Structure formats: structure tokens, C-alpha cells
Amino acid sequence: MRKIYSQFFANAFLMLLLLSMAKIGNAQQQITVHGVVRDSVGGLPGAIVKVLGSNGQETSTDAVGRFKINATSHATLMFSFIGLKPERISLSNQKIDATGNVHLEVTLLADATALEEVTVTGFGSTQKKASLVSSITTVDVKELKTASSNLTNALAGKVAGIISFQNSGEPGLGTDNSTFYIRGLSTFGSGKQDPLILIDGVESSATDMARLQPDDIADFSVLKDAAAASVYGARGANGVLLINTKMGKDGKPTFGFRAENRISTNTKNFQFADNITYMTMANEAALTRTPNGIEPYTQNKINNTAAGADPYLYPNNNWIDQLIKDYTVNQGYNLNITGGSARARYYIAGTYNRDNGMLKVDPINDFNNNIRLNNYSIRSNVDFNVTNTTTLIVRMYGQFDDYQGPIGGGAKTFENALNANPVMFPAVYPAAKMPFLEHPLFGSAQTRNSDMSLSSTMYVNPYAEMVKGYQVYKTSNLQPQIEIKQDFAGLTPGLTARAMGYLRRYSYYRVNRSYIPFYYSAILNPQDQSYNLVALNDGSANSLQPVGREFLDYNQEAKDIDSRLWLEGAINYNRIFDEKHAVGGMLVSYMSSYENANTNDVIQSLPARNAGISGRFSYGYDDRYLFEFNFGYNGSERFDANNRWGFFPSVGLGYRISNEKFFQPLTSVISNLKLRATYGIVGNDAIGNVNERFFYLSNVNLNDGAYGATFGRNEGTAVDYRPGVSISRYANPDITWEKSKQLNLGVDLGIANSLDLVIDAFRQNRTNILQTASNIDNAAGLMAIPFSNFGKVDSKGIDLSASYKRNLSRDFWINARGTFTYATTKIKKIDELPYSGDLIYLSRNGYSINQAWGYIAERLFIDDEEVANSPIQFGDAGLLAGDIKYRDINRDGVITNDDRVPIGYPTEPEIIYGFGSSFGFKNFDFNFYFQGAARFSFFIDAAQIQPFYQSNGYQTGLLKTIAEDYWSETNRNLYAFWPRLSTWRVNPNNETSTWWMRNGSFLRLKNIDVGYTFQDIKKIHVKSARLYFSATNLFIISGFKLWDAEMRGNGMGYPLQSVYNFGLQVNL
Amino acid sequence: MIGLLTLIVVLCFSACQKYLDIVPDNVAVIEHAFKLRTEAEKYLFTCYSYLPKNGDGWFNAGLMSGDEIWLPQDDQTHWHPAFRIAEGQQNKDAPLFNEWGGDLKGADGRFNYLKMFIAIRHCNIFLENVEDTNKIPDLPLAERERWIGEVEFLKAFYHYYLLRMYGPIPIIDRNAPESADPEDLYYQRMPVDDCVSYISDLLDKAVEKLPARIIDENKELGRTTKSIALAVKAKLWLLAASPLFNGNTDYAGFTDKDGISLFNPTTDLTKWEQARDAAKAAIDMAEANGHSLYAYKNDVLSLSDETKTQLNIRNAVTDRWSVEHVWALSNSYFVNEALCMPPLARGANVDRFQLQGVWAAPIKIAKMFYTKNGVPIEEDKTLDFSKYTDVRTAVDAEKYNIEPGYLTARLNFDREPRFYADLGFDGGIWYMKDGNATGSDINTMYVQAKNAQRSGFGHFTNWNETGYFIKKLVSWQTTTNSSNAPTWRSYPWPEIRLADLYLMYAEALNEVEPASSTAIEYWDKVRKRAGLKGVAESWTNYSKNPTKYSNQDGLRAIIQRERLIELAFEGHRFWDLRRWKLAAEELNKDITGWSVLGKTTETYNIEKNIFSQTFIAPRDYLWPIGNYEIRRNPKLVENPGW
């Protein structure tokens, strides 16, 4: 190795020598240039110094910014560093000292072009980032590339201002989407609460966004404040996500191809106790509240099970192990082609993703019961220059889901596994037991009542439930879109116009196909300890229901078809006068219509329409003083003609102090400082649920059978029956949209051109929240509770993002970034009873909208005497020692609703944060990101995990945590995890209380990413290729161990997934 | 440029206005209900639909909330809000049978019928529209008058229903607009006297407009007549005159938030005169329009006189549209026969789901019935009931009442016909039309109520807790003697019977003219139908207190007991005990029954304690309005004690 280097240097030296000799001949003296490259802070390591010219050489600065390079005396040197403005220096003007050396001190300034970066704002217009006053987060698309195939799961902690969390990892139609809110959930209205999502201007659902490929995204902006969102008028109150897909570029076609192979495992599985413990504890549960109860499991059965006797006679199942795989493998492919000529450009992309579930597939059927979600999409964005000033853009997007999975979905399988008895039956008996039958011999048993008498149901066999059939659904989403842009520079410079329209057709259908399993139960043959099978549901005289059926039956379920039409036209004006006065303006008019085909009544079937005019006027003086005025004026079909139109104005001011003359001395440290302030009003017209649209009309059923009456003798003669009238809504013409008044104060701070900080603090007053008024005296006799716009909530918070970039040497770069979002709410007015005096503590005013209310659990009751001497809880006189003891808040001697108080943090996180770093060394890159959430609580659903609780054929399993820590006569632990066992629901123990409350805070390694990039592999016509490994949800740090804390109370659902991903990205 | 822009904006805007007007003109709104007669008729029926569903024990607070009928104590399958009141579970946190709060707080689907205030609002909407002759042009004037009368009656009845439960109630004569602020919709409870006179006046207005009788019985039976309205008025005044509402000093300090007294603490005897006159008017109107006491006629089965008397008593209730029914609820047929009747000996149906026999009468109710001499068991000087749990063997002469040769308790012997007509008991005959092949009352079905016997304990949810079954409510024409499910001969629930009016009249008369002979005259009509001799004759000959009937207090006690016996299991006892302020005494007694777990005569015929009922006076005399309702209306005051 060393030899090769030395030879290389020797050769280079020789060549230099030759060159220098040649140059001398041309009177070009060969000189050595040395010096220091600095940035605003000091010596800049890793800056590149290059001699311009055909075979100019190149070097980089050392750790303190020093460099040394040989060049001819007339050469030009180029100094560059990422993020800084490159500098060219001609050597001809430099003084050459006696030894033929030139000394240079170079300072690189902040790259002005970085500040020329544009940000996409409302209605397809763009603004220079530098002149932006509103609060818009521009998301670096690279950040969104994670191992998850669902884009919504990439937002948490990465986008300042978004509060996001994931509840379930089940692949499907929205099932593994993260819920996300811009600046937190800030309304308690029953209508739309999540942000408006516009993909290429198309109003889209969270699932549409989930299916979007980061590869196809050109830019991604989050409009957070009123100044940014008020152009969306009555639709922008919850913030707006703007996503635009890539357009073609001039040049030869380039191909991008990405293939990924993902291994997915559950982040955490819940653990069952072993079945011997299960049976002994079940026996205890049967006796502990009913001393003369009957034990369900005999000692003989327990002993035989423990001894591992015949597994068909003494079944010993761990359903999770039997139904759930350890991992599953998924694939994703994305191909895009871009290119074009001066007249036309194209970007064409196709995606295929395959997500598989975690369910075990068994060759028992020829259909696959595991979840298999294929989604395909194709996108074609083409733009033509129709004339020199006219551009026509045509976008076509089609997205299709093909799903196959178990009936009821994957979460149902987990639920069944938790709620199946593990010792009464095996999953399936060997087919050889009844060779003449073709159907599988599923195990089950007849359930028993508490007195051990046989009841009329069978135990649910989770295995049979999983394999008995499958559901299939398919979605299609087609979106043709056409846009014309016209440049009116001929009329007046800076004037352009644009018109856009799209159609979106969505369809969804689902069918189920299933057979009805035949169940068998084993009967011991005492002679030889073998067993025989008896059919439980074969349709014979004493058969249980439902009777088995071998062939598949079919039923079709919900179908969904909808259609949306959108038309918009816009005029834009942007011009800079006298190099100092930047004037901008925009005026947009739009109309939209949405129809849904599967409705239940006339009202629902009517199209939902929206129309409006929006505008922006901006003025900037010398890029220092910035002013902006925005408005939306729009109307919605939902409201009375007199209240239909609303005006939503906003103003913004910005001040770039760093552009002031007096600031110049500081720019080497503070390279950028901008103060921003905006204030405005935005609305939300999607209030109430979809069926509650026309609040100005009453909703009357003039043929309601429930309110009919009958008269007549009824002696073989017809009676006179007429249906009656019911009213489900009273007309209220005053009802209008929710209003959000938002104030945003922001600072953009750049330090030494390497650290960027964006800090926004906001305050929002949400008013006019639609609510029912429940403090109306019932004596008024209203059939429906009237609605009105009276709810009020304030929210405030702060979001910040920081990023740091640094090239440590030519081959080694590092960047670090982090975000922090804090949002909290305070109810100002909500539908509740007019509490006053002693009852004031029941009022929700002043608390977060997500504040949980519950009881304060002191501990478990010590003994029955304490129960007798304590306030009676919820009227249940049957409580015993070991049940949860609640505090009598109002000291009225009984525990009722009135003893509830706010407990814990809000149930949605108030803080979401993330931080991470990327390093690059030569062609390697490494990237990690942590994400966390804090200040939230959740509640374990005790009823859901109550062991031994039997309902029909379901019997809840025993979680290990419960088996290890529960109150019993022999272990009277007053703070045990689980109270006294029971076979029925002891409802007072299941109330929302501090007993079941847990702190949800967690920090997780959200993703890591290691890649190697092959550059210019020309031989095989590859421009670049990157081979990478990425992983998501590697581990979680949380005080809560039962399941993944991010799933909160939904712990028995389909777990979140850890994904390990191997991918290859090739650009041709 | 600017001009062009403005033009575009203006054009777009006017187009947009139209664009957003998507609601067609014909979307159903409340105005449509009063455009045509057929639609308005539906609204009339809507007003009727809120009449209480008293034919179902789930909704009949009077039947199930007192001490008349008991349910299995250790199994709550059949428990419902009304019965939980009897179990002492009434509370203000989530009031049971919460008529004031309507369904808004009730979790169970079957609470949904409790919507009396909604009913009143509907009545007001109906009256506002129908009284306007510009509306419903195709509605003839005469029919319009009648409809108005019917809805005025319903409005009055709904007020009366609430008054009986809650005492002072708001008078809702006009609706507040629904879009008004919550403050405008706060109602105030009005003094009882104001409520009574308001309801009484409204009933008077209705009577004028109502038809005297139903002509088109096939279509209209069940709709309101003058007799019904007058009978309700009689009930109203009897309630107003009775001690609970008339000069009740327990409520002397009960005021609303403005300090207005809600109960008048001075007794006003003229209220009894009102009650007397109202009852008389109702009786006259009913009799003039074909109502009379029921009598079993056209006997093709050659039944014994004993059985015929029992059928007179049973059919007065269970005969469909019986002549005695002044007001029967065509929208609420009795639906609980299966809960009354158990599988019987000699019967073919032993299915405990089809014949549950769960409704049980406590022993104190069995004791309440007279002896065969028509006087109370504790007063009869010829018959000794002091050892009523001793057993005795039935003889052949008793074969229409008790299975001959059967050993059963002393309490079940020598009783008046109403005892045998109303109750089934261990060894008791249960005559049904299909009891045997000929329909004869000899060798017919009877009750075997000991543990593991046909009618006895043994099923896991359906058993009779006391050993007394409610025979009275089961129509004799129901077919149960088959292994198939019975075909229940259900009947419109008799809300008001003529016998009830007679006894009301007698009661009021005694208060106005002590020991009135007219009172005895009307009341003896009821006794006669029950197979008993007149009051004077019975007491004189058989009572240890032979002159009891000749003074006001004595006569009052006798009238009250007579009323409880005659109207037993029809949902009156609960209200009457309150009205008389006797609930604190009666409903603080223990509920007892035979030892239904006993398998032998010896172990069965032991009186066992089932439940110790508690009634806290004066709290329990009126319903709690409940925390939720009190809190949401600052003008509302809770009833005393709650």
C-alpha cells in the first residue's frame, strides 16, 4: 500500500516537474500557494482548494484551515465549502515573494444562494425563504426516507410543529398510520381535527399521504400559522401540509431505481403466564369471591398438563406463539424516470410495496390467511411549453391497494389470541384421527356456567378463527390533473397566471370468504388412556351452533365510492422595483365539489361544496423589512345563506436584522437573524360529523316507526297504525365555522453559517367550536340536543428546529439536527353543566382538552371490614378485600361520578422531540435518529386484560405481569399490580383511575441508516448507486414494560413494528 | 387590469352563491308535517305514542316499584329500573325510572320510552299548528276540533303523570323556541295547586271537544273519549285531595329558589268535593256510553259458580276491550303473561323459558285479601288465621280453588274469590280454557310450587321467590296446554276500570260526607261482582269490629283495603299508598314468602324473609330529580330529602 502511494507521489512529482518546465517556457512561473481559508468563525477545515483549468489539481485545508498548492502564476484558484459561497482568486494579481511563494488569506462568506432557497406556500406559489414571515416548516425530503413503508410514520420528531404518534403496526387501509396534528390537537369539536393535506394541490387523506413515496416528493411544507394558512380560509384552521411531487428536468433521461427488502418484527409482544399457573389461578379466581364456587380445573388435569401428557387430551397452548410469527419479510420497489427537452419534460414513477402481516400461515388451507397488502402506484408528471410563455402540465396519478387478510383484520387475531382459553382444546387434532373427513379437525370444547353445568356455546379457537377464511379489499384512486401556466411578462413584467383542475375518483370494496369450522372435543378412553373425538357442531341432534360448513361462503361488505372535482385559477405578480422594493401579489379563486355514493339519506347524498377567493400581498424593502397580508374569503354549502361566506385575514411582519448595516460586524458570528410576527384568523368548516351538515335545516323523520301509534279493536280486523314524527336536529341558521385566531412569533437564527435555529412560539384562540348544549333543561322537551358554536379553547406552544452542518475534512462531514415541539391546550368554554360553588372542581375549564378524568385509587382494600367502613363505591355492595379503594373527593360518603378529578398528563403527548445526526466519510454515510414523546399519560384497559373473564366462547388469557403480581388471600399486597381475581367484571376495579394510569413518556431509536455510495461507475452506465441498511424502531426507553408505550392503551392490538431494511438505490 | 379583475371576482362570486345552494327545496322539515291531513295525522299519533307503556312491567313503575310483585332475589336477569326502586336502590346520582331526565342519561335501550317532556313539547307543536286554520287545508273543522281535544287531553295527562311522580312540576303550556339560549329554556317548578288547576282546566277544555264514544271501533278504539278525559280528571282530583298533596306539613318549608312555597300546607276539604264531583261525572259519562262492570256470560263450558265468579274477576282485567275498561291502552298490550304463569301440573308445557312464573306476590299481599266472609283475616271472628303457616288438606268441596287432597298452608284456605282469582299457590287450581280436553273446571291444571316440582324452584333464572303467582293478569283464553310455545291472549292494558272509578267515588264521598251510604252503595257493586256480600252485612255478621264501617275513619280504612284488593297487580297500590301517606308504614315491612327451596310440605310451608324493604319518609314519597338535571338548570330545586 505504502509502495503504491510513494510511487504515485513520485509520478506526480515527475509530472509536476515536467509541467513546470513547460510553463516556464510560456513565461508562466510555477509557484506554490499557501495560506488559510476561514469562514466567519475562523479557520475552515476541509475547504476545497482547486486550480481551475483542464487538469488542475485539488487539495483541501487541514484542521485549522491551512492549505498548500502548486499552480502557475496566472492560474485561478477556487475555494469552496458546502453551504458557503465559493470564492475565485486569480493569482496574476498576487504578490509573489522571493522564494516563488504566494500567501493567501481567504474568507468564505455565507452562501447567498442558500438564502435564495424557496419555500412553497399556499396555492402553488413560492416565496423566497429569506423573505418569509409566516411559520412554515420545510421538510428535508431525505429525512422522510425511513424503513417504514408508511410516510406518516416518518413525521414524529422530524418535523418541528407536528405532534404525532402511532397506535398500531397492522398493514392495511390506514391501520398503521400515525395520527398527527399540527401544533397539537387544538379543538374538541367533533368535526375535522387533523390538518388539510394537499398533494400537488389535491385534497388528500392521511392514507393517501401514507402511500406516497419519498422518492417522488419534490418539496414538503408544513403551514403552521395563520399567515400561511389563512388563504385556505375555512379549511386551514388545523394547519396545512403541502406536498408537491417532482417534475421533469431538461436533459437526457435519468433513471432512479430503489429496491428494498424489509424484515419486520413486533417491537414487543405481550407475554402470557404458563398454563399451570393459568389453571391454578383460574381455580383461585373461581373461589376467591364465591367460597362455595367450583374449581374449573381438576388437580388431575393440572398434573397431567404439567407432566406433558398427551397434548390433545391435556392441551397446553401458547396462542401467541402458535399464531404469530417472529418476523415477516416485505418488499418495496420504486422506479422513476426523468428527462426532457426544452419543450417538454417528464417525470414518471412507479411504486410497488408489499407489506405482509405477522400471522402464521398454515398449509391447512390453499388460501393464505396472513395479511398481504400490495400497493401499486404510478405517477406521470409531464409539462410542455405550448408557447414561449405558456406551460401546460399534465399529472396522472393512480394508486391501488390490494389487500388480503384474516376476517376482522390482524388486530382481531391478536385479540382472539388474548381471549382464548389455552388449556381446554388444541388448535387442531391430527387428521389421521378421522381419516374419512376432509375438513380440519379444529379443537374446541363446550363452555360451562359457573356452576359447571354445560352452556350452549363453544370456546373460540383463535387458530380456527384465523384460518377459517379471508377478506379481500381493493382500493383504486385515480387523479388526473391539468394545469396551465401563462407568463404575462409581455403585459407587465412579473405577472403570471395559472389555472388548475383535477378530478379524483376513489373506490373501495371488500368481500369476505369463509367456511364454518367443524370443532371436535377429545374424550378420554380410560382403558388405554387414548382419546376419541366427538363432533361439537356437526348438525346432529345436540349439535352446538353454528353448524360447520366445509365450503366457502361469501359476503360483501361496505363499498365506498367518492368523487371530487376541483377548479382553481390564480394570478401572480412578483417584481422587484429599484432593486429594493419587492412587491408580490396573488389572487386565487377556486371551487370544489365532493360527492359520496354510499349515503343513507338525501342530506348525505348532496355534494359538499366549497368556493372562495384568496389573496396575498407582500412587500419587502431591501430584504430587511418584510410585510405580508393574506386573506381567504370563502363559503361552504353547509351553512345558512346568510352565514355562508367568511373572511379570513392575516398579516405578517418580518425584520431581517442581519441585513442592516449596523449588523455587519456581527455577521461573522450571527450570519442570519430574522424576527417574524404574524397574526390572523383561519377557519374550519368541517365541523360536526358528516351526517350533521346542514345545521340551518331541521332534520325530521316523518315516518318514524318508533313514534307511531296503533288504534282499533284488533279482533281479526285491521288496526289503524301510523308511524310518527321524530326530530333529530333543530334548525339553527346561526351555526358557522370554527374560528382560530393565531399569533406566531418567530426567530430565524444562523450562527457562523453552520448552525441554523428556527424558533416559533405560538398562541391560538379557537372559538366557535360546535357543540351540543347539554345544560338545556330537559323540561324543554327537545328531542335532539341543539348545537351551537360556543366551545372555546386556547392553545399555545413552541416549536423549534436546529440543524448543524460541518465538513470536518474533505472526506468527512457531519450534520446534526433536532426538533422540539411543545403544544398545550386550555379549555375556555366547553359543553358541561354550569358547575359552581362546591362543584367547581368538576369543571373542565382551564384543563387540557385531552385531560383524563378519573378516580384517585388509594390502594387495595385491606380487609372486608375496611370495605364495610368505607364509602360505598358505585353502588356495588359486593366489594371485598383486594379490590381498589378510591378516594371520596367530595366526602359525601359514596364514590360516584362526582369523585372524579383530573389525573395525570393529557392523553396525547404535549412534547414530541427528535434528534439525530449523520456522518459521512468518503463514500460511507451513517445516520441515526432518536425520537421521543413526553408529558402524556395513558390508561391500561383493565377490563380488556382481566384474566379468566368469560363471555360466550371467549375467555381472557393470563398475562405474565398479572400472574407475577396480584392480590391474593395469601399475598395481601396492597399495591399489587392486579386486584383480587374474579371471574366476572368487578366494574369498580375497571374505572379510569390512577391505578391504571401510566406515564407514557418514551424515547426510541427511531431509525438508523448506513449506506455506501458508488460514484460514477461509468463502465456499467451507472451514475451512482447506494447500498444501504436501515432500521426503524430499534429500541424504546420507557418506564412502561408491558407493551410498546407508544401504543398507549391499545396494547392488545397489533404491535408496532421494528423494521430492518436492506436497500439499493441506483441512478442511471 | 383592475377592472378586469373586479369583473372576474364579481362574476365568480355570484356564480359561487348559486353553486353553494345545493339543498333541494323538498328536504323534509317540520313544516311538512302540517301541510296535509295525512301527515298531520301522523303527528297526532306521535303525540299518542308517548303514553306510558304500562302493559310492560319494565315501564310500569306502579306495578314493579312497590311491594306487590317481587322478583328472584339472587338472580338479576329480570331486574329493571322500576324493580330496583323496590330494592331500595333509588338515588339522585343516576335516578331510576328517570322520567325527568328522559333517556339522556339512561344507558339501557329500554329507557328510551321515558320522555314525557318531549311528549309535552310535541303536543304544543301540534296544537300551535292545528289550531291555526290556515294550515292543513284538507282537515275538516269537526275533525280538527276533535284532534285538538285529544292532544289537549294528552298534554294534560302527561302533566298529571309527572305531577304524580314528582309533585311540583313546571307547567309547559307553550314551547320556548329551541334555538333560544339555555337560560331561556330553564323551567321552574310550580306549586302543586297551580299544577292541579292547570291540568284540570285543560282537561275541561278537552272534554268539550272529545267524542262521547268511539263509533269506528275497528279503527279508533283506544283514542280518547269524554269518559277517558273525565276519568283522568277524577284521578287528578283524588290525588290532589289526598293527604300527600293536600295539606302535607312534611313539605311545609319546601320552596323554590324564589321562596315560593311549592306545597300548600293547609288541608282544603273542598278538594275532596272536587274529587267527588269529578268521579261522579266520570262514572255518569262512562255508564252513559256503555261501560259497566264485567260479568262472565254465555257459559258454554258449564262451569261452576266458583269458577264463574273467578272469571268475572279475572276477565274484568284480561278481557280484550272489556266493557269495564274505561281507558285501555291500545299501544301497550300486556306482555308479561309468561312472567306470571309457571308450568302447571296436568299441563303439557314444562318449558321454564316459555312459562317463567317469575312475578311473585309477597305473603303480606296474600294476607291482604279477605276471608270468604268478605272481611280481613285478622278481623274474621268465625275463622282463625293466627297459625296461617300450618298445613291442611284440601277437601273435595274446595276443588274449584285447591286441588283436592293437596296439603297446603292455612293461609290459602277459606279465602274470598278474589284471592283464588288473583293468585296461584302451591296446590292452587289454575283454571284455563284449555286446562283439559273439555274445558271443564274439574281435574284441571294446578300449581305444584315446591322445589324441583313443575312450578317450583330449579331453573337457573326463572323461579318464583315467594310461592305466589300472579294468576290475575293471565287471560283464561291463552293456550298453554301444549308443548309448543303458548299463544298469549294479550289485552290492551286497562289503565282505568269502572270499578276503579266506583271506589274513587266512594273514597271521596266518605271524606265529604263521613260514612256516606252512597259510598257504600257504589262500593258494594264492586264487592258483589267479587262474589262478596255488602260491606254492612259482612262486617256486621263476621267482623270482630262490626260497626267499623259506620264511622269515617273505619270506613276509610275499609275502602282503602278494598281498593288495594280489587285493584291488586294493576299498578295502583304503589301510587295509592303514597297518596294516602301510608307508604312509610307499608313499605317498611319485610318481603316474605314460602321457603321455595323446600322440597316437602314441611320444609316448604315455612315463612322466610326475602328482603327488608325500607322507605324513608318523606324522601321516598317523591322521585329524585337527580344531580344531573338539578345541575343543568339553576332554577330547579330537588325534592326534599334527596
Please report the total strand number of chain A as a whole number.
57
**How is the largest sheet of chain B built, in terms of strand order?**
1-6
Please provide the ordered H/E string of secondary-structure elements of chain B: HHHHHHHHHHHEHHEEHEEEHHHHHHEHEH
Radius of gyration of chain B: 27 Å
Question: What is the count of helical runs of chain B?
Answer: 22
Mean pLDDT of chain B: 91
The percent of residues in helical segments of chain A reads under 10%
Beta content of chain A? over 45%
Total helical segments of chain A: 14
Overall shape of chain A: it is globular
| Biggest sheet features of chain B | 2 strands, antiparallel
Which two chains touch over the largest interface? A-B, 74 and 75 residues
Distance N to C terminus of chain A = 33 Å
Report the average pLDDT across residues of chain A.
87
The multimeric state of the shown protein is heterodimer
Helix content of chain B: 25-40%
Task: Determine the structural class of chain A based on helices, strands and strand pairing.
Answer: mainly beta
Distance between the termini of chain B: 76 Å
Low-confidence segments of chain B = 104-108
Describe the protein in words.
The complex is a heterodimer of chains A (1068) and B (642). Chain A has 1068 residues and is mainly β. Chain A is 10% helix and 47% strand. Chain A contains 14 helices and 57 strands. In chain A, the strands form 14 sheets. Chain A has a 22-stranded antiparallel barrel. In chain A, strands 10-15-16-13-14 form a five-stranded mixed β-sheet. In chain A, helix 5 (275-288) packs antiparallel against helix 6 (299-306). By secondary structure, chain B is mainly alpha-helical. Helices cover 38% and strands 6% of the residues of chain B. Chain B is built from 22 helices and eight strands. In chain B, the strands form four sheets. Chain B has a two-stranded antiparallel sheet with strand order 1-6. In chain B, strands 2-3 form a two-stranded antiparallel ribbon. The radius of gyration of chain B is 27 Å and the shape is globular. Chain B starts with a helix and ends in a 10-residue tail after the last helix. In chain B, 54% of the residues are buried. Mean pLDDT of chain B is 91; it is low at 104-108. The interface between A and B is large, with 74 and 75 residues.
